[in-house]
């Protein structure tokens, strides 16, 4: 049986008892000159986002939508050896030669040649477009042993297309610096912005510095203002100022406001784009807003009610209503009559630990932030509070 590796990405892995323990993220092979590479095993991502090694000798079955293994899984973090190559991370998108012509690799097939012994057997290549695709034997291909300056990343991105941004960020973090830059260049602005929001600060800064300034500014515009401000905080002041100047004025304005607050206060933590509506809007209109799939659960959990204008900084802040309350009232009910009077807003200068205590005391997932003129300037969500309370390297530890 022949298995194409790119199609294995994300496949669930089950133990002998039938419990899912993770998902396939890559396949590890050993290059052996002109001989077909031997498969050493698979990189499996287990909870919480830890990558471990599954030896190929323990794989007992690869079925449609499932990989089954026997024995016990060593949960020590996978560390790639110098003699090992990752099929998805390093072989896809390489330029190789087939019959003397340059071709691009977009998939690699492996097969069991003996019991528990797997090898790379065939290579799927194309010349510029997929309609020129061919599948050839390993023996017909040369060039895998040549270090390439610009490898491209279309094949790797295609194999991870269905991943959530957090999982793609985890995969990106595990790649070499060179491959990370190639993938970042190949992602569209919106997808790259989502991924950057999930990466550790060091990776964020490293990737942003590899982009052309104009594109870096475009990506910052696609990020949430609070995430963009956090990233700019980590850059040298002159570089941050240059990128802000390249951003569209209406996109840069909320980021500039956030940068005026210390990063460990409510103002530095808040998002400037919560759900805001006037008191004359109805419950039906509010539910339509929180139903938008691009909103995170913590932002969509409540509606803030203000006098116009209804963009931060707003008119006078009137109050908030949680979506559970909205579900209990008739759709035609005006928001002005469903305001929760027991929740007082907080000030932008409230320290991080006091913000956390406020959310805990009132069992909230977001808190309204108002300025000295009682205008709503943003909302602090529980996920942003956790992000700042956890150690700086919490993503790497995961």
Topology diagram in text:
Blueprint: E1 2-4, E2 12-14, E3 20-32, E4 35-46, E5 50-55, E6 59-63, E7 66-69, E8 85-86, H1 87-91, E9 95-98, E10 101-114, E11 117-127, E12 129-137, E13 141-142, H2 154-159, H3 165-174, H4 177-186, H5 189-196, H6 201-210, H7 213-222, H8 225-233, H9 237-246, H10 249-259, H11 266-269, E14 276-277, H12 283-290, H13 297-300, E15 302-306, E16 317-322, H14 323-328, H15 352-361, E17 366-370, E18 376-381, H16 382-389, H17 394-397
Parallel strand pairs: 2-7, 14-15
Antiparallel strand pairs: 1-10, 2-3, 3-4, 3-8, 4-5, 6-7, 9-10, 9-13, 10-11, 11-12, 15-16, 17-18
Helix pairs in contact: 3-5, 5-7, 7-9, 8-10, 15-16
Give short descriptive properties of this protein.
PRC_barrel-like_sf; six-stranded antiparallel sheet; CBS_dom_sf; seven-stranded mixed sheet; alpha+beta; CBS-domain; 17 helices; 398 residues; SH3 type barrels; Magnesium transporter MgtE N-terminal domain-containing protein; CBS domain
Give the low-confidence spans.
none
Percent in helix: 25-40%
Assign the CATH class of one domain: Mainly Beta
User: What is the average per-residue confidence, as pLDDT, rounded to a whole number?
Assistant: 90
The CATH level-2 architecture of one domain is identified as: Roll
Structural class by secondary-structure content: alpha+beta
The name CATH uses for the topology of one domain is SH3 type barrels
The general outline is elongated
* Distance, first to last CA: 35 Å
User: Counting H and I runs of at least 4 residues, what is the number of helices?
Assistant: 17
The main sheet comes to: 7 strands, mixed
Percent of residues in β-strands:
25-35%
- Computed over alpha carbons, the radius of gyration is 25 Å
Quantity of strands, as a count: 18
Q: Considering the protein shown, what is the CATH homologous superfamily of one domain?
A: PRC-barrel domain
